[in-house]
Specification:
- Helices cover 38% and strands 16% of the residues.
- The chain is built from 14 helices and 15 strands.
- Helix 4 packs parallel to helix 5.
- The two termini are 38 Å apart.
- It binds 4'-deoxy-4'-aminopyridoxal-5'-phosphate.
- Its cofactor is pyridoxal 5'-phosphate.
């Protein structure tokens, strides 16, 4: 997925080869024996280069320079930035790339403390804890929050890190229909009565888990309705904002800000730094008591090396830019740009006759392909024209709901987007995936 310098990036060819290989392995699995092996050409992403002094043959990945429509680099911070980069370099010189220690064993620097304060303040919660990886934030912290005797009610399309964390917790897991508050209420009613005090329930704890923007659907969470139901039934809300924090909301504060939800009504706010902030790691923000408890009992805090100081500095600096604390209006411009870019791109794709999932303002927009047999052609034809898109199919989606997933960035210029639209339109015609009549062009 690479960096997104001005919206362009080196992309490794072979995404479709990987996908097809996986599909083949699945087909083999289903029948319990190999049906046939994939042609060798599908593995030709690794290419032999000319020999070096006639002694060793170097192998390298074939790389092509493409317009990157697959990166989560929503605000364009994953490229050199005039405010962030010098500060990151300074912290690298001061603290080096790693603390080589867990947080409680000397791995806490002043940058870590500043980061936690900065994140808590940004997302609108009293306190926060950070970890070195977004995936681990869900998979390792959920089992600390809830265990045997607890009940997790999870959106059916929640990310794998949530699924893993929920399974690892030992709690009972129930799933509600994706982003459907009425079904969430139905599932809740099957397990507790409305108004039943927490102490009189057969469950030690109940947590409802949702995402701010669903990464395979591009949809915004029906958060106001979900929060109202959770309040009514007195259950906790856990919100994963991996794709929404920094990317949506007037000041980049995510779906609560965008949809007018009071952050006091969301008990556990989770997010990652790998998207809008151009860094790595994840956070949980909540009450002081909750964060204190996690700091003393979460294995990912006690036993894992702390987040790299330069990565932490990148997040602090990016948040300062977003909030205008760098003394410029670049942050506000980035936020306006991602919104304009996303809404422009989505409406142009729809006018062309594509079926595009998701909501306005969401930078994630899946184009429905449906037929899994068309995925490789779609991706390959886009790549041939130097546009890289992420293709998603089984098992990440149901077999016949294959799609190409576009991620829009504030780093894309209008010219970039026009080039991409022209290519996608051409490839859409070639592959026959424009399922709606195109709108007539204005004269
Ligand atoms: N939560 C969600 C909703 C995600 O989409 C992802 C990954 N894209 C993660 C958590 C894991 O984050 P990371 O890639 O930063 O480890």
């Amino acid at each position: 997925r690479g960096n997104n310098l001005q919206g362009y990036a080196p992309i490794c060819l072979g995404l479709e080869d990987f996908y097809i290989r996986r599909l083949y392995l699945r087909i083999q699995d289903c029948f319990g024996r190999p049906i046939c092996s994939p042609p060798d050409a599908w593995f030709d992403v690794v290419e032999r280069l000319s020999n070096d002094n006639n002694k060793t043959l170097k192998r390298t990945t074939k790389v092509s320079r493409c317009l990157n429509l697959g990166s989560y680099n929503y605000l364009g911070f994953a490229a050199s930035d005039e405010y962030c980069t010098p500060r990151v370099i300074e912290s690298l010189k001061k603290y080096s790339a790693s603390t080589c220690s867990a947080r409680v064993d000397g791995g806490t620097t002043s940058i870590h403390m500043e980061l936690e304060d900065c994140v808590a303040n940004f997302v609108g919660k009293p306190a926060a804890i950070v970890t070195g990886m977004g995936y681990v934030t869900n998979s390792a912290i959920l089992p600390v929050l809830i265990g045997k005797g607890g009940l997790i009610i999870s959106d059916s399309l929640n990310h794998n890190s949530i699924v893993n964390g929920a399974r690892g917790s030992g709690a009972t897991i129930r799933v509600f229909q994706h982003n459907t508050p009425s079904h969430l209420e139905k599932v809740l009613r099957e397990h507790i009565a409305e108004g039943q005090p927490r102490t009189h329930r057969p469950w030690k704890k109940i947590i409802v888990i949702v995402e701010g923007i669903y990464s395979m659907e591009g949809e915004l969470c029906q958060l106001p309705e979900i929060v109202a139901i959770c309040k009514k039934y007195k259950v906790y809300v856990y919100l994963d904002e991996a794709h929404s924090i920094g990317a949506v909301g007037k000041s980049g504060r995510g779906v609560c800000e965008l949809l007018g939800v009071d952050t006091a009504d969301v008990d556990i706010m989770m997010g990652t730094f790998t998207k809008s902030f151009g860094s790595c790691g994840g956070y949980i923000a909540g009450s002081k008591e909750l964060i204190e408890y996690l700091k003393y009992s979460c294995p990912a805090h006690l036993y894992a090396t702390s987040i790299s100081p330069p990565a932490a500095q990148q997040i602090i600096s990016a948040i300062k830019v977003i909030l205008g604390e760098d003394g410029t209006s670049r942050g506000a411009q980035k936020l306006a740009r991602i919104r304009e870019n996303s809404n422009f791109f989505r409406s142009e794709l729809q006018k062309m006759g594509f079926e595009v999932l998701g909501d306005n303002d969401s930078p994630v927009m899946p184009i429905m392909i449906y037929n899994p047999g068309k995925i490789p052609a779609f991706s390959r034809e886009c790549l041939k024209r130097n546009v890289a898109v992420v293709i998603v199919g089984f098992p990440a989606t149901p077999l016949l709901l294959a799609r190409a997933r576009i991620c829009i960035s504030a780093a894309h210029s209008r010219e970039d987007l026009n080039i991409a639209l022209e290519v996608i339109s051409k490839v859409g015609d070639l592959t026959g995936i424009k399922y709606f009549p195109a709108e007539p062009q204005k004269q």
